[in-house]
Amino acid sequence: MNNRLLSSLIITVIVCAGPSLAFGWGAATHAYLAKELGHEPGVMNLQEMYGAVVPDMFNLMFGYEHQDYLWNKTHYEFMKVVKKAKSDESNAFGYGFASHNEDWGADHTAHIKSVGIKSGEGYVVTKKKILAPQLKLGIMLFLNANNIAYTPELLDEFALRIADSAIESAVDLLVSQNEDTRIGTRMQVAAKLRSPFVPMLLSKAYAKDFAGEAGMIVEEAILMIVETEKIFKEYMELYGEILTQENAIDLMAEQGAQLAELMLEGEYGIIVEVPSELMKTSLLAAIEVVKNDYSEELAATLDFVEGQLESHRVESQLLGNLN
Fold first, then answer.
1. With 50 as the cut, is the pLDDT of residue 169 above it?
2. Which residues contact 195 (CB under 8 A, 6 or more apart)?
């Protein structure tokens, strides 16, 4: 793994600034779900896989005041992308994009209501509440060692944030080991081969509203969307590469530590070096929390999302776009 390239990418991400919401399912999990939904074969399925991860493209904008707004756009107003798609490739992308959503897509089972373990809450939400108390001592020792003042409430918040990321990463890692050992390679290829029309498709869907919200001209909003998608595309290629490595868990811990540093600086004004060992310990604990039932949840999520895509007539909408 090219650590220099990873580091330069992470530094580039901070230029966009912004608060990171929970990702829901991790990128590899969304890509796996899109592969299994398989509305279109071959290269078109790769477009679906990339489309399924792109709604999270604004999640890396640590500290940006309009990040919540952009997250809500991609997770709740996702049909704007579907309706703007006018080609086979953009339709495939739109199908994957729609599969992700918070309202009735894959993220609904992660955040709102599990369909596999039936906990009454989303799967990731349920699991992070189990994991967070296990992480508090390590986080407290880290904060004390770096002379960082905190309240009990802030400690709880940090524990939940790290637990959320660790659960998502744990499921991604297990998917790459059990459900699809080639998912990392598929993610790399999907990102590399994503349609060149994707940035403009996203801009057509969201730039005008974003410009009005942020008080900028539409051209500035388009530029920001295009640049953010470019960075996210590179990030997905690198994340896919991580999942192909024998020491994937160590690389994921390093990546998690770098992102945690950006989150602490961007959202809390705390500048500190986060040890990758802290993130690795969290990831290993997360694996223990999810390993016995994550597969059941993913299988149920696949059935749920497939049914929702049909009931909301996403396929017929896409076919109509070509007529």
1. yes
2. 47, 87, 89, 90, 93, 201
The dihedral through the CA atoms of 196, 197, 202, 207 has a sign that is positive
pLDDT score for 259: 85
Residue 156, CA distances (Å) to 55, 162, 229, 274, 285 in order: 27, 10, 32, 18, 17
pLDDT in tens, 84-98: 998 999 999 999 999
Which two three-digit tokens encode residue 32? 């796996």
User: Three-class SS of residue 301?
Assistant: helix
pTM of the full structure:
0.91
With 60 as the cut, is the pLDDT of residue 18 above it?
A: no
Report which of 18, 16, 12 is spatially closest to residue 64, judged by C-alpha positions.
18
- For residues 77 and 8, what is the distance between their CA atoms, to the nearest angstrom? 32
Distance, in Å, from the CA atom of 97 to the CA atom of 93, rounded to the nearest integer, reads 6
Angstrom distance (rounded) from CA 230 to CA 1: 20
Q: Is residue 98 within 8 Å of residue 105, measured between CB atoms? A: yes
Distance CA 96, CA 33 (A): 9
- State the Cα–Cα distance between residues 46 and 248, nearest whole angstrom: 22
Considering only CA atoms, which of 58, 62, 59 is closest in space to residue 14? 62
Backbone angles phi, psi at 262, to 5 degrees: -65, -40
| pLDDT of the residue at 242 | 95
The whole-angstrom separation of Cα 102 and Cα 74 is 9
**Predicted pLDDT at 24:** 60
Of 130, 169, 182, nearest to 252 by C-alpha is 169
